[in-house]
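Re: your question about Leucyl aminopeptidase family protein

S., sorry for the slow reply, the queue was backed up all week. Below is exactly what I fed in.
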Amino acid sequence: MTLGASLDCLAPPEAPALPLHAVTPAGLEALRARLAPAAAGFLDASGFSGAAQELRLLPGGEGITGAVLGLGEGEVTPWSFGSLATALPAGSTWTLAAPGMADAAVLGWCLGAYRYSRFRPAPRPPARLVAPPGTERARAIAEASWKARDLINAPPNHLGPAELAGAVESLAAAHGARCEIIEGARLQDGFPALAAVGQASPRAPRVAMLDWAAPGLSAGAPLVALCGKGVCFDTGGLDLKPAAGMLRMKKDMGGAAILLGLAELVMRLRLPVRLLLLVGAVENAVAGNAFRPLDVLRTRAGLTVEVGNTDAEGRLVLADLLACAAERAPALLLDCATLTGAARVALGPDLPALFTPDEGLAALLLEAGAAAHDPLWRLPLHAGYDSWLDSTVADVNNISGRPMAGAIIGGLFLRRFVPSGLRWAHLDVYAWNDTNRPGRPEGGEAQGLRTLLNALETLFGGIPGPGR
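Result:
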């Protein structure tokens, strides 16, 4: 499938453009002094106050001569500019007349311009921004976010395991990486729990494995391993979800989509690391050969798992992926998944739950999220609940029998498949915007993408290249 169309909301540097001024209430008087008297008088007469998202088009003798955006009293963020691509006249072109805000403006403008238009065209063309020099990183993040959103928004009949694995293959080809697709008997042998989850679907499960290293790196350079849950549709299996519970289950591959976006940014920005991306692409379907409650599955790590509920399938997919990644002894292991409804009950849709036993890594990720306006919230891997996963017939159950602490239980289950001492973090994400907000249109969302990129850049630095 074709993903991530070029950013049609950006204009080339030579395009004729109108000035866009952005101002806080405190800076309004200084802006008036810079504007032509007629424009300043219009702002006064229209009651413009500089409140957040307040927008005025400045009239002139031949039409519009510019625009003024209110930033409000708070911090300037990408969301300050997130409504402009659709609020300014369709097809108009603008240049930013506000120093020091270029990265936030480009990122917010582009994120707000996104529309999923594969099957229905966008209602109108976006207004375009001439991206200032030095904003290449912001553009790269926007493009990766668009691609992740496209994957999450794709209807499930158009994005199955083969198509999701194909997206990894396309990404590898675009950046000179190596990609291997593992399926059939090799999948049964090497990723048995993952294979069991997908065995009832006519769309066969598979693992897509991407390997890349920045040019010129030694074989001993740090390895970053990314494991993404790619459940392309989740019926719940034999523990069938109610109809309402299936309505957004095309997004159950959101963790994989987010890490595809992160992998693209690592390669495009040439971070000085070796990269391993593992995507478990499966569909949790219902058929006569579906895995059952009370089945005991073997895993790549050698642990046996009793299936307490077939709707807790994502952790079975990740268990095999984490074990595979751990065999390579990475410097950092990250997994991302739409794992539990319990995380949403606890934190709502905007705050992915962060789990890690590493205090330093937790602090780094939380700080990176705040800086990127892409926040996380840490929940504990509380050892006191570990026994809730006990099984009388296997090494571990995939659920707890208690209706509490569901997100923590999911994290504790995954921890069983990560060797002690390996630096690891798990993100339990929603990957969806329930409503339209500036920069965050309703639909799939690449939650945590900017946070993880910030953290990787802080941990491993960068090589001068595009966007750096």
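The first strand starts at residue 10 and ends at 11. Residues 141-460 form a domain with the Aminopeptidase fold (CATH 3.40.630.10).

Happy to talk it through on Thursday.
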